[in-house]
Amino acid sequence: MALSTVTKNSNDGVLVGSDGTGTPVTLTIPVTVGDTTIDDFRSASVITGEANEISAYTVRGKRDSERANGTRITPSGSFTVHFREFTNAAAGNVLDFIRFAGAYEANISTTGANRDVKMIDLILTVEGTTHGDGADAVVTLSDCYCTAAFAEGDPSTLTISYTCYGGMVLTGG
């Protein structure tokens, strides 16, 4: 397939959250403003060690050895949604989804049932097929721990920040 000649923008992306049940419960994240960020794509590499920080050892200001693979990189990022409500027991919202509350209290963490830390998968799909690229570009972030921050404004917003502990897979266009 040839390199795409179409520049993508925020109108081309769809963000979905997914839990860890056998048939995952999903939520197409509503009213996202199109500011999804993913920091550090090195963890998507299949090259041994590229998903690690680089450690450079020095002794008294001089290099002591070759640089070595250090601590594993954990990608992180955020996205913003327009605020509508904090919780809804009947029709869940994004805050309920990441908190495993309200309509999503029966969800299961992607790391397994009965876990203290609740995690979800995040899947960002960027449209490519309708642009003639042959395939959509997809980033799957596994085992994401999410937090939320509320900001009052015009409009009020929730910013969801996440850290991805399970890895990143890139597919498609």
Topology of this protein?
Elements: E1 13-18, E2 26-28, E3 37-39, E4 52-55, E5 58-59, E6 62-63, E7 68-72, E8 76-82, H1 94-99, E9 120-126, E10 137-151, E11 157-172
Antiparallel strand pairs: 1-2, 1-9, 3-8, 4-7, 5-6, 8-11, 9-10, 10-11
Mean pLDDT: 87
Q: Strand order across the biggest sheet? A: 2-1-9-10-11-8-3
Order of helices and strands: EEEEEEEEHEEE
Measured by DSSP, the beta-strand proportion falls in 35-45%
- The CATH architecture comes to Roll
The secondary structure category is: mainly beta
Quaternary state reads: single chain
Rg is: 19 Å
Q: Distance N terminus to C terminus?
A: 9 Å
The total strand number stands at 11
What is the CATH topology descriptor?
Pnp Oxidase, Chain A
Shape, please?
Answer: globular
Please tally the helical runs, counting DSSP H or I stretches of 4 or more residues. 1
Tally of domains: 1
Q: Low-confidence parts lasting 5 or more residues at pLDDT below 50?
A: none
Helix content: under 10%
Largest sheet, in brief, is: 7 strands, antiparallel
Explain how this protein is built.
The protein contains 1 helix and 11 strands, in the order ββββββββαβββ. By secondary structure, it is mostly beta strands. The chain has a single domain (10-40, 75-172), classed as Roll (Pnp Oxidase, Chain A). Strands 2-1-9-10-11-8-3 form a 7-stranded antiparallel beta sheet. Strands 4-7 form a two-stranded antiparallel ribbon. The chain has a two-stranded antiparallel ribbon with strand order 5-6. The longest helix has 6 residues, at 94-99. 21% of the residues are buried.
